[in-house]
Amino acid sequence: MYAIVDIETTGGHASANGITEVAICIHDGMQVTHRYETLVNPGRDIPVYIRALTGISNEMVQGAPYFGQVAHEIYQLLHDKIFVAHNVNFDYSFLRYHLSASGYDLNCNKLCTVRLGRKILPGLPSYSLGKLCHHLGIANASRHRAGGDADATAELFGLLLRSDTNKHILASLKHNSKEQNLPPHLPKNVIESLPLMPGVYYFHDQKGKVIYVGKAVNIKKRVRSHFSGNNPNQQRQEFLRNIHHITYQECGTELMSLAMEAVEIKRLWPKYNRSLKRFEHRFGLYTYKDQRGYLRLAVDKHRKYADAVHNCKSLLEGYGILNQLIEEFELCPKLCFIQKNNDTCTGSLKEQCACEGVEDAEAYNQKVDNAINSLKEQLPTFALRDKGRNYDEQSCMLIENGRFYGMGYITNDFQVDNFEALKALLLPYPDNGYIRNLVLAHVERYPAKKLDLVWEMAGV
């Protein structure tokens, strides 16, 4: 038995909206044998645009039962049936959420007439309920009302049952079939073609625009996990409705997929990504020459269009490094913006310091250069070699002078004895603190994968 359902609501997600109308047509596979319809008091104001769309006003539902008062009857109609709806995950998530709030656990097999329509009646210009019914000659005198849409969906479902010569409906109801959990506009074959290996995947909307980028150890398994469950929140429901296609890039390792995800989120700025969009609050050690010709060092926030002589995770770390340089190379704390008062210089040279004009600019600038060079000498340059996408290659990620240079793939027999030759094989990317820290943490955990390149650089 099938329960063909349509509901009207106060908004697009169950966790923050109520139901205003429910209609259920019980179908035995041949015809509708029972029909149920009721208005529901959502317990909240119906937005103006919803009133305009459905024609259901606050006055109409004022005397209607609350959902809790009809929950038992609705559950009895649904719980032992196959739940059918046009874009089934929307109606199912709403009813499951509100039935759960009333103490009923709905757990049904589902069929989506959008997905079934695409399979059984391929090639139609649109699979929205209104346009599909118009194309097929199915009348609906009460569009955007639960009763009218449920009746139209029941007639559509009957037509699909009669036209299903390839048994798509039976295949969708098999115990191991997860097709009804998929977004309504995403073909099943797209999921089936995904690889079982690490990489980055992209969800595209109807126009082909990337709306989400994710990384995975197993692309197919991770993508499927997005569509399991019946989370009723607004973002998930909107997210699922907007997925029309999936593409991917295979990566040799999980680490490379993490790095590629960060790069692609920054490049594409997808609508539904959140975490890696955040601005990286990092600092740097910068240098410039003042009007008197003295080189000055300063800790400042990361500047988009200026290169730091050294990057720092925090302001505190930056000041710690700068104080160490001041002590080791006898730099002036005033010229480094550590001492900000007009008292006598607290540096090692006191009254003989550059800030007093006693030490000339050339001598002082040499000390600043020496300090900067000492920092650069401490920055690591190494390659991280790991498994590739197949047996004929290896993945490689390069850190150059403490910065993320790029990544790519090299042959198994490639000898890392020429720094420039290696760089030519890798795709460069903008330096990224998040990726840099991932690589540094990985080589600390797996030191055998690290190839120190300092000695190769000496011959460049």
From TrEMBL:
Molecular function as annotated in GO: 3'-5' exonuclease activity; DNA binding; DNA-directed DNA polymerase activity
GO annotation (BP), single: nucleotide-excision repair
Entry-linked InterPro entries: DnaQ, GIY-YIG_endonuc, GIY-YIG_endonuc_sf, GIY-YIG_UvrC_Cho, Ribonucl_H, RNaseH-like_sf, RNaseH_sf
Domain of life: Bacteria
All copies of domain GIY-YIG, residue ranges: 196-274
GO annotation, cellular component aspect: cytosol
Function: DNA polymerase III is a complex, multichain enzyme responsible for most of the replicative synthesis in bacteria. The epsilon subunit contain the editing function and is a proofreading 3'-5' exonuclease.
Summary of subunit composition and partner proteins: DNA polymerase III contains a core (composed of alpha, epsilon and theta chains) that associates with a tau subunit. This core dimerizes to form the POLIII' complex. PolIII' associates with the gamma complex (composed of gamma, delta, delta', psi and chi chains) and with the beta chain to form the complete DNA polymerase III complex.
Protein name per the record: GIY-YIG nuclease family protein
Organism: Mucilaginibacter mali
